[in-house]
Amino acid sequence: MRRITRIATVGIASAALALSATACGGKKSSDTPSTDGTKAAASAAIAYDIGGRGDQSFNDAAYAGLKKAETDLKIKGAEAEPTDGEGEADKVQRLTELARKGNNPVIGVGFSYAPAIKKVAPKFPNTTFGIIDDTSVTGANIANLVFNEEQGSYLAGVAAAKVSKTGTVGFIGGVEVPLIKKFEAGFTQGVKDTNPNAKVLSAYLTQPPNFDGFSKPDLGKAAAQGQLDAGGADVVYAAAGLAGSGAIEAAAAKGKWAIGVDSDQYNQAGLAKYKDAILTSVTKDVSDSVFDLIKSVQDGKPATGEIRYGLDKDGVGLADSNPKYKEMTDVVAAVEKAKADIIAKKITVKTAP
Predict the structure, then answer these.
(1) Each residue of 44-60: pLDDT tens digit?
(2) How confident is the model at residue 84, as a pLDDT?
(3) What is the dihedral angle through the alpha carbons of 346, 347, 351, 353, rounded to the nearest 10 degrees?
(4) How far does CA 203 lie from the centroid of its chain?
(5) How many CB atoms lie within 10 A of CB 11?
(6) Pairwise CA distance, residues 226 & 51, whole Å
């Protein structure tokens, strides 16, 4: 099994590369235009989703891809943060400013950028726009970076069912949108295929248009406490961005298992004091998707259209960083068998509950 551990810490961008700019409509951004009349270095930009950089999950995975591109491709990186309660106009302004400054590609981290990219991309036909987790908006200069989240979640369901002693496990979704329903569907199917008698408790933190369920750890903590206490769950899987850290905290406090998401959360510095409770994490190789798109542009062959990452390409998976997980040889064997069966198409994982 591939172990995804690149996203071990959340760094701070070099002061030489970071410039504060509110024009992007966010809390902070960085860009590196030329100031001495010479040709500016090639640059690429990412605009973060709700929760921003430091979420120990989705946004930090995108940041890792940008940093890898800075190191390996010698490009300049630009970042733009979201603001609380922002609307579509803010995202349009943010992407427009990043494109105007010559960044190529410009990548929106999350499906919420779809309407803004639909408006902005046609105005900059020579700039490649990437969007993660969305296929609804397409265009000649748009790359849709998408994942088979349900496949990785299925493996998490297998692991959860195997380690559960109560026969009850919990799923917590940040916001009830189709993307997060994929996580729930795969997880539930994996649990039930492994133990038909198991019970899966499902809860969503908020309903759209309220997206606080991706950014407020207290919501995740409260939901997990409810599943652990009243519900009797002894494993909790949260697909909730920054809010998921609250679920991990709650599980650790109760001496129960948590399953992380997007990044290998066992290795996240911000979650270090809870790491022993993080059984595994469903990983999405957002880092490589960002890097690959940047490299395609730098190579003069910008990728466009749907670019999908699944188990067959190690685009999703289950991390095995926790030594306790690796010691559970029966669990590991069951997960590996499920992975092989999905890749061989012996198992078709549902994308909706």
Answers:
(1) 999 998 889 988 888 99
(2) 81
(3) 150
(4) 19
(5) 12
(6) 23
Note the Cα 67 to chain centre separation in Å.
16
190-200 residue pLDDT tens: 999 999 999 99
pTM score: 0.85
Residue 183's nearest CA partner among 224, 155, 143, 220 is 155
Peptide bond into 217 cis (omega under 30): no
Q: Rounded to whole angstroms, how far apart are CA atoms 171 and 270?
A: 22
Q: Determine the average pLDDT of the residues in 245-272.
A: 96
Q: Which two tokens stand for residue 179?
A: 């993307």
Sign of the C-alpha dihedral computed for residues 64, 18, 270 and 45 taken in this order: negative
Contacting residues for 95 by C-beta, under 8 A, at least 6 apart: 47, 106, 108, 113, 116, 117, 120, 129
Tokens 């510095």 correspond to: 269
Query: What confidence category does residue 40 fall into, taking pLDDT thresholds of 50, 70 and 90?
Result: low
User: At which residue do the structure tokens 């599980």 appear?
Assistant: 251
